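Our consortium's second objective concerns turning raw sequence data into structural hypotheses that experimental partners can test. To show how far this objective has progressed, the report includes one record in full. It was chosen at random from the queue rather than selected for favorable results. The single chain below, 220 residues long, was entered without modification.
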Amino acid sequence: MSEPRVHNRVERIGIDESGKGDYFGPLVIAAVFVDATTQGELRLMQVRDSKKISDGRILEMAPDIKTICPHSVIAIGPQKYNELYDKIRNLNRLLAWGHAKALETLLERVTCERAISDQFGNERLILNVLQEKGRKIVLEQRTKAESDLAVAAASIVARAEFLLRLKRLSSEVGTTLPKGASPAVELAAKMVIKKHGQERLGSVAKLHFKTTKAVLAGLA
């Protein structure tokens, strides 16, 4: 079997997001291009779904992945996220917009015919956004897409960017902003409001989460 055919079958872009379920911090979407060579290198690095790796290790691995693989990272900070959500009013559409943006940015640097992402909604959502810009790509949406090496690499790159930005936001407001959505998250939100006023919450948090209502009800 000739090498080019194997090579082309392997070439793909993996896309994944981080921060979707976190009240604080941005929504980050990363796209990572993988070919036959980098696939072997990612295996050696033991790249796998970021949910199975500690935060410390993610922060170590992401720069290495970014060094060997062409990639793009779209980070939608809380303020911008809230503006977009107010307009779009649908998380899947917002995700599709972010996925398309990450894909397009990467396709300006590499030629690739196939992309893989997690199943989060109708793939037409992403393709419609892409086609407006004249991009043609075969998009596979899979459940548990992170089992694919390219998607796993994207999940690590996205999570690292999320963690770095969450830390920066914590420094800006002088309060540790926890991950996820929990009682500790509600407490941190109350601290932000007490220190900086209610309007500051929109610069660190995704306001459409139920957490906002709970926090504001608790302050009333």
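The partners drew two points from this record. The first strand starts at residue 12 and ends at 18. Residues 1-7 have pLDDT under 50 and may be disordered. Both points have been shared with the crystallography group to help prioritize constructs.
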